[in-house]
Design a protein that fits this description.
- This protein has helices at residues 187-193, 219-235, 244-259, 280-293; strands at residues 26-29, 34-40, 52-58, 65-73, 79-87, 97-102, 109-111, 117-122, 137-142, 153-161, 164-173, 178-179, 204-213, 272-273, 296-297.
- It is of the alpha+beta class.
- Among the domains are: 65-174 and 201-213, Immunoglobulin-like (Sandwich); 219-297, no CATH class.
- The chain has a five-stranded antiparallel β-sheet with strand order 8-9-6-11-13. A four-stranded antiparallel β-sheet has the order 1-2-3-12. Strands 4-5-10-7 form a four-stranded antiparallel β-sheet.
């Protein structure tokens, strides 16, 4: 899988001329993936000279993650999500930090391999056990400073949750943000720069299978969301529109939504995707169809 997402800031011009970008002070340097900050002394009350200050901010996004995921139902009604992360084969920094945006922390457990630390972070205190599709619940795995991260591959990252499988954002970093500038910045520059230094931007982003849907969510709503998610994976070129499995999965979800009363949580057991899932992302889609909706796929 490759990094997905668009830059929220302008691209850094090759000639360094930022005149066309009025009131823009942060830019993306396309060939390095880093940020370039450039602003005139006229907006800096602490400037001692007249001119333009330009410096670079190196982002910890020089990693190449690929994720193999399995999910399985447990006897207590929860699901176990297991993640194996491969870094490469392109030259990259070791992965030292990664995050999942999960739906809720209710009845949820996390594990990681030896040498890794993990914790759950809630942006809005008091909502830990609420289900939310907003970016509110973050599960992070990190290595202590000075400890090697994932240079090639690592397994043992686990989430156990009552939430049914769907596709959620994951973010991967190697190292820390490193700025050439150490001094204070004008307020207008800080306002543009600081939101870009968090893991949601300064990382490599993937969409992966994970705990998303509440156990009591209406199945027709889950079907609609999965149809949207698979279509989104196709738009991002993470899944192929030419794949017989993907095409049949999308059509089967349409049939599911048309045959399901909105207020009735009934699983039509006759629905099945007969084309085999081939790629890793297709196997993740197959797990979501089966475990969230009861739609069988070949081999299940």
């Amino acid at each position: 899988m490759s990094q997905v997402g668009l830059s929220p800031v302008p691209l850094w011009p090759k000639d360094g001329n930022t005149t066309p970008y009025l009131n823009h002070y942060v830019f993306l340097e396309l060939n390095t993936g880093n940020l370039v900050v450039s602003f005139p002394s006229s907006i800096d009350p602490l400037a001692s000279t007249v001119g333009t200050k330009t410096f670079r901010v190196n982002l910890p996004n020089k990693v190449t993650p690929h994720v193999d995921i399995t999910s399985e139902p447990l006897p207590d009604g929860r699901y176990r999500y297991s993640y194996q992360i491969v870094n490469g084969p392109a030259p990259s920094d070791p992965i030292t930090n990664w995050e999942l945006e999960v739906a809720s922390f209710t009845s949820t457990e996390f594990l990681g391999p030896a040498g890794w630390r993990w914790k759950a972070i809630t942006d809005i205190p008091g909502t830990e056990n609420e289900y939310s599709s907003a970016k509110d619940h973050h599960t992070t795995w990190t290595v202590p400073p000075g400890t090697p991260g994932i240079a090639t591959a690592a397994a043992g990252f686990t989430v156990v949750s009552p939430a049914r499988p769907g596709f959620i954002p994951a973010h991967f970093q190697g190292g820390q943000v490193n700025s050439e500038n150490t001094g204070p910045l004008p307020a207008a520059v800080k306002e543009q720069l600081e939101p870009l230094l968090g893991i949601e931007y300064a990382s490599v982003h993937l969409w992966v299978l994970g705990p998303k849907f509440p156990p009591n969510a209406p199945r027709v709503a889950i079907a609609g969301e999965l149809h949207f998610e698979i279509s989104h994976l196709v738009r991002l070129q993470l899944a192929s529109a030419k794949s017989p499995f993907v095409a049949e999965a999308l059509q089967t979800l349409k049939v599911y939504m048309q045959s399901m009363p909105v207020q009735q949580d009934y699983v039509p057991t006759n629905l099945k995707v007969t084309s085999p899932p081939i790629s890793p992302i297709e196997r993740q889609i197959a797990l979501a169809l089966s475990q969230s909706l009861g739609i069988k796929t070949l081999g299940q």
